[in-house]
């Protein structure tokens, strides 16, 4: 008991000293605790942002696919535009609105201008155009000299003009040669991909109405009513466009072939 | 509200990332233990600058490892274990490991179980306090830790044994040696 009391007195004496850390240390430690909490929250916020990243990636893929498809469409549009615009570069006024001599004169002028431009480019930059794929540029002096030459012997340049136009029609708006094969290949790829996204016709995928139509289609095939089956197939394609009807088309074709054989 | 929570509950609140009271919980915990932790380190090292660094490191470790703290465990046991490891590392760095492991060879019989004088006035109390600190700083580390953890850290012998990873009886005897030495040192104030 005496021992316990004395121990307690030593403890009291020790605590009476009550030595404390300096205030600067207190502040540093409390500040560190606070900053670590903020840091944790920031890390958590970052992680939350990171959670969105897969969704953003998926969304961007969904956006990019139609864009690629549109771009390929645009490429073919540009090509068709170039082909259609080049031979008749300037719009021609109707014959009714102008007198015949004036019309002839104006047409002649336009033809000459087009000829001059083509001739100038052909003569000066023929090799560059074909090999380096540069854009056609026309300077005033070149127009003048080309005009003189064209006036001297216009018929000689008509063939050259047509050749140039043919070459130019193969160029895209960027001045590069259009690779038709790769454009077609890309289109085919995109079509396949778009098709691949279509839903397979299965009882679990179909709504009740579609299931009824599908059953009716089967009955038409059994009964040999191919016209009705074909009509129903067309209607189904219109009403449920996100399904893949290849299998049904195949079934119809087989049924028709079997029927014609028998 | 927060001051009614025990240390473990305060640590638990501090761990909660979205609790608006987490910072206040830490402040409360810090206010409760800063003195004992500080004294434990300063009295273990006898070098003010190193003691300050270690003390700061101890709290940084508590903050950084708060997620590893198990609420079933006693906070002070956990924190003093970290503090002791830091001290061991420090002794290794300064080549004082032998001092840490050295056991006191003095026989208990040598230390008379003398009664402790009570401070008659403030001057005597200050004198006694100075003598006490000096005696503590001269104790072997094992006894010093046992004494400081028991008296200032308010830990039981069992908890000290857990922290220092020593048998219960050994810790008990280390503590008794330390107390007897201190009593002897304070004898002349009688």
Which descriptors apply to this entry?
heterodimer; A: mainly alpha; B: 190 residues; mainly alpha; Rna Polymerase Sigma Factor, Chain: A; Arc Repressor Mutant, subunit A; 2 domains; 0% strand
Task: Outline the secondary-structure elements.
The complex is a heterodimer of chains A (262) and B (190).
Chain A: H1 2-17, H2 23-85, H3 100-131, H4 140-152, H5 154-169, H6 180-196, H7 208-223, H8 226-239, H9 246-261
Helix pairs in contact in A: 2-5, 2-6, 3-4, 3-5, 4-5, 7-8, 8-9
Chain B: H1 7-15, H2 22-45, H3 48-64, H4 75-94, H5 97-101, H6 122-138, H7 141-151, H8 157-164, H9 168-185
Helix pairs in contact in B: 1-2, 2-3, 2-4, 2-7, 3-4, 4-8, 6-9, 7-9, 8-9
Brief characterization of the structure:
Chain A is mostly helical.
Unreliable stretches of chain B (pLDDT < 50, length at least 5) are: 101-114
Give average pLDDT of chain B, whole number: 81
The greatest interface here is:
A-B, 30 and 35 residues
**Biggest sheet of chain B, in brief?**
none
Give the total of beta strands of chain B: 0
CATH topology label of the largest domain in chain B: Rna Polymerase Sigma Factor, Chain: A
Number of helices of chain B: 9
CATH-defined architecture of the largest domain in chain B:
Orthogonal Bundle
Mind summarizing the main beta sheet of chain A? none
User: What structural class do helix, strand and pairing data of chain A support?
Assistant: mainly alpha
Counting DSSP E segments of at least 2 residues, the number of strands of chain A comes to 0
Strand portion of chain A? under 5%
Structural class of chain B: mainly alpha
């Amino acid at each position: 008991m005496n021992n316990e009391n004395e121990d307690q007195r030593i403890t009291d004496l020790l605590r009476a000293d009550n030595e404390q850390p300096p205030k600067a240390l207190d502040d540093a430690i409390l500040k560190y605790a606070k900053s670590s909490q903020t840091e944790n929250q920031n890390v958590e916020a970052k992680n939350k942002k990171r959670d969105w990243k897969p969704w953003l990636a998926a969304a961007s893929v969904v956006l990019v696919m139609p864009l690629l498809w549109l771009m390929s469409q645009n490429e073919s549009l540009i090509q068709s535009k170039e082909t259609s615009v080049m031979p008749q570069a300037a719009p021609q006024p109707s014959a009714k609105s102008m007198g015949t001599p004036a019309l002839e004169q104006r047409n002649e002028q336009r033809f000459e201008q087009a000829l001059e431009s083509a001739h100038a480019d052909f003569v000066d930059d023929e090799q560059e155009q074909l090999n380096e794929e540069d854009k056609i540029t026309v300077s005033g002096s070149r127009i003048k000299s080309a005009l003189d030459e064209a006036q001297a012997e216009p018929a000689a340049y008509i063939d050259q003009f047509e050749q140039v136009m043919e070459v130019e029609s193969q160029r895209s708006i960027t001045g590069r040669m259009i690779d038709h094969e790769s454009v077609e290949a890309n289109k085919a790829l995109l079509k396949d991909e778009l098709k691949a996204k279509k839903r397979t016709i299965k009882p679990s995928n179909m709504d009740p109405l579609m299931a009824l139509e599908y059953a009716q289609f089967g009955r038409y095939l059994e009964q040999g009513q191919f016209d009705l089956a074909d009509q129903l197939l067309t209607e189904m394609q219109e009403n449920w466009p996100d399904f893949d009807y290849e299998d049904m088309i195949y079934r119809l074709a087989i049924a028709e072939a079997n029927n014609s054989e028998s | 509200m927060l001051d009614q929570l025990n240390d473990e509950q305060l640590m638990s609140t501090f761990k909660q990332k979205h609790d608006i009271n987490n910072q206040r919980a830490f402040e409360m915990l810090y206010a409760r233990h800063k003195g004992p932790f500080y004294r434990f380190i300063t009295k273990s090292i006898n070098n003010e600058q190193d003691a300050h660094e270690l003390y700061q490191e101890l709290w940084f470790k508590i903050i950084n490892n708060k997620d590893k703290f198990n609420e079933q465990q006693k906070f002070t046991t956990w924190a003093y274990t970290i503090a002791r490891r830091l001290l061991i590392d420090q002794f290794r760095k300064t080549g004082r490991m032998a001092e840490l492991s050295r056991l006191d060879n003095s026989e208990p019989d040598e230390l008379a179980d003398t009664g402790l004088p009570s401070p008659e006035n403030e001057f005597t109390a200050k004198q006694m306090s100075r003598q006490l600190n000096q005696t503590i700083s001269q104790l072997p580390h094992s006894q010093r830790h046992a004494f400081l953890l028991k008296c200032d850290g308010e830990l039981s012998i069992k908890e000290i044994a857990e922290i220092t990873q020593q048998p219960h009886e050994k810790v008990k005897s280390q503590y008794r040696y330390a107390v007897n030495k201190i009593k002897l040192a304070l004898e002349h104030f009688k």
